[in-house]
Amino acid sequence: MLARIHWLVGVLGLVAFVVQGQYLAYVVGPLADYPDGPRMLFRSSHIYLMFASVLNLALAGTHLPAAGWARRLHQIGAAIVIAAPAVFIAGFIVEPTSGTLDRPISRLGLYLVFGVGVVWAVTAARLRR
């Protein structure tokens, strides 16, 4: 079940990534005409969505640990990774036009995904023992 959710979120996220690209090309206009700050915010927000979507597709092929605390940690991390594309879409909508280079929404998404990766790596190492 979790693998199907990761797959669905990954595919929908990649569709949203393509839609974002079209929005940037046809609504926002040529990013080369923008000042460096807003151009960087649009591009990085766009790439973060692709990153989270591909991460979900990659996780669609993984298996949950058998039971216990490792399984629970994996499920919590999976929920965070599943939510990550929505966080990055929110960052794309809000942050580039905020008038500042501060990235509170995208920063939160990146820290959460990074934290999940570290926790899963430590968990995998402990399970191998």
Quick overview of this protein structure:
The protein is built from four helices and no strands.
Account of the protein in words:
- 80% of the residues lie in helices and 0% in strands.
- It is elongated.
- It starts with a helix and ends with a helix.
- With 129 residues, the chain is an all-alpha fold.
How do the helices and strands line up, and which of them pair or pack?
Blueprint: H1 2-28, H2 36-59, H3 68-94, H4 104-128
Distance between the termini: 28 Å
- As an assembly, this protein is single chain
Can you give the mean pLDDT? 89
DSSP, total strands? 0
Estimate the helix proportion, in percent.
over 70%
Radius of gyration: 17 Å
The helix count comes to: 4
Output the keywords:
129 residues; elongated; mainly alpha
